[in-house]
Specification:
heterodimer; A: about 220 residues; mainly alpha; MetI-like fold; 9 helices; elongated; B: about 250 residues; alpha/beta; Rossmann fold; 2 domains; six-stranded mixed beta sheet; about 35% helix; binds adenosine-5'-diphosphate; binds magnesium ion
């Protein structure tokens, strides 16, 4: 059996030709979805976390059920479900972003809840001894400390979200992996197309991990 | 003048355990009272009840003659609304054994947080006053640092400044030097002596520092099993206790 030569496996020229298209899809879709999705997931996640802690049982308990259901069903099913539910005129890129954001908000909420519980009881007591109102206690004391404790987990969820963006193909959003595959179809240079897509994922994940660590350092007190 | 604190038939239970049963005592305005007694005798619980950190099982606590958490109306015991409790609580401050400073805020922000957000003081005004208080506790030059950079003794002095910034009528001190290295205790007690001399804040003090108790308090109450075993002037109780239990306890802490 003849061995595959490197030239057969990899062409720098083909890679250079594919790069702009794949990279374009990364910035226009994958990165956009992850950034906006993270913003949604962090803010909704924090809201859900606080609600489950302060709302009365008749609200908090159903909320926990809904969160559990979202976490225990596959993202791809939720994407398809939402795409059939919304009016046909809606841009599925944004529908997909919202679904991914809400999906991950339930994971982030669990991490936030753990962060909130990790705040020392003495902090609540000091706030009460100073007569600080509940809202102020949450905003100025508990959430900043919870957020700091949660930051590494949030970074990991963001990286997970990155890696889940290819599911957008299920609702026909042209994200990076789909674009790479189509480019491969038309040029038969699959190795280059998927290698580039994989390296971009790796770079983006490494960058995110690095950024989170910087953020952690900035929040040291 | 009504007593600044009055415990009337106070009962505190945790589940099935009765920690305080039918406790009665008064603290006069400006009076500094030291609570002593073996571990588990209920001293912390008394302070936490005054600070409304624990729920009052039975009885009444009156602050300046007004109900703290429960009122007697037409012979019935009724719980006050959160808002009413909050009004009274503003006059009470507490310093904890483990400081409980807010680690995410600078020293000065720890001190101005409540004056600004509870009393509605202006930022500038609150800052001036906080700096004066930090000066009083010897930490003015550390105002912009975070608490994590301070020693235990320095943290506790910030916690004292933080409590004083609310201009409390009542100050509760729960073993504020117990978590400190021995060489740091003196500075904290020095600050408290200074506060005792320069203000007329009423104080409930829990401490094992008997010389300090003797110097600053008007009255000492010896607790045992949630009851007052004996009380009186510091010189009498600390030098000539009438109960064997008190003598044994004093021997154990000296
Ligand atoms: N949250 C709690 N739950 C159950 N028991 C408690 C709680 N807090 C205090 N106790 C009990 O109440 C008693 C008095 O405690 P405490 O007021 O801390 O005493 P002291 O400060 O004099 O050492 C102890 O027996 C303690 O175990
Ligand atoms: Mg105690």
């Amino acid at each position: 059996m003849p061995a595959i030569t490197f030239e057969e496996f990899w062409s720098w020229e083909a890679a250079a030709n594919l790069l702009p298209e794949v990279l374009g899809a990364f910035f226009k879709v994958t990165l956009l979805v992850t950034v906006v999705g993270t913003l949604i997931a962090v803010s909704v996640g924090m809201l859900l976390a606080v609600l489950t802690q302060v709302a009365p049982g008749i609200i908090a308990r159903p909320l926990r059920w809904v969160m559990d259901v979202i976490r225990m069903t596959p993202l791809i099913v939720q994407l398809m479900f939402a795409s059939f539910l919304v009016p046909v005129t809606w841009d599925l890129l944004w529908v997909g972003t919202a679904v991914i954001g809400v999906h991950y908000s339930t994971y982030m909420a669990e991490s936030f809840i753990a962060g909130i519980r990790s705040v020392d009881r003495g902090q609540w007591e000091a706030a009460r001894a100073l007569s600080l109102p509940q809202g102020r206690t949450w905003r100025a004391i508990v959430l900043p400390q919870a957020l700091r404790a949660t930051l590494p987990a949030l970074g990991n969820w963001t990286i997970s979200m990155f890696k889940d963006t290819p599911y957008l193909f299920a609702i026909s959003v042209l994200e990076m992996v789909t674009v790479a595959q189509q480019a491969g179809n038309s040029t038969f240079r699959y190795n280059e197309a998927f290698t580039i897509a994989g390296l971009i994922f790796l770079a983006a994940s490494l960058f995110t991990a690095f950024a989170v660590r910087r953020l952690e350092k900035a929040l040291v007190y | 003048m009504p007593p600044v604190i009055r415990f009337e038939d106070v009962v505190k239970r945790f589940g099935d355990t009765t920690v305080l049963s039918d406790l009665n005592f008064d603290v006069a305005p400006g009076e500094r009272v030291t609570l002593i007694g073996p571990s588990g005798s209920g001293k912390t619980t008394i302070l936490r009840l005054v600070m409304t950190l624990e729920h009052l099982t039975e009885g009444y606590i009156w602050i300046d003659g007004k109900p703290l958490t429960h009122d007697r109306r037409d012979g019935n015991r009724v719980q006050l609304k959160q808002k009413e409790v909050a009004e009274t609580r503003k006059q009470i401050g507490m310093v904890f054994q483990h400081f409980n400073l807010f680690p995410n805020m600078s020293v000065i922000d720890n001190v101005t947080e409540a004056p600004v957000h509870v009393l509605g003081r202006g930022k500038e005004e609150a800052r001036e006053r906080a700096l004066a208080l930090l000066d009083q506790v010897g930490l003015k030059d550390r105002a912009d640092e975070h608490p994590s950079r301070l020693s235990g003794g320095q943290k506790q002095r910030v916690a004292i400044a933080r409590a004083l910034a609310m201009d409390p009528k009542i100050l509760l001190l729960d073993e504020v030097t117990s978590a400190l290295d021995p060489e740091l205790v003196g500075d904290v007690l020095g600050v408290l002596r200074d506060v005792a001399e320069s203000t007329d804040i009423s104080m409930l003090i829990v401490t094992h520092e008997m010389q300090f108790a003797r110097d600053v308090s008007h009255k000492v109450m010896m607790f045992d099993g949630g009851q007052i075993l004996e009380q009186g002037a510091p010189a009498d109780i600390l030098s000539n206790p009438s109960h064997d239990r008190t003598r044994k306890f004093l021997d154990s802490v000296l």
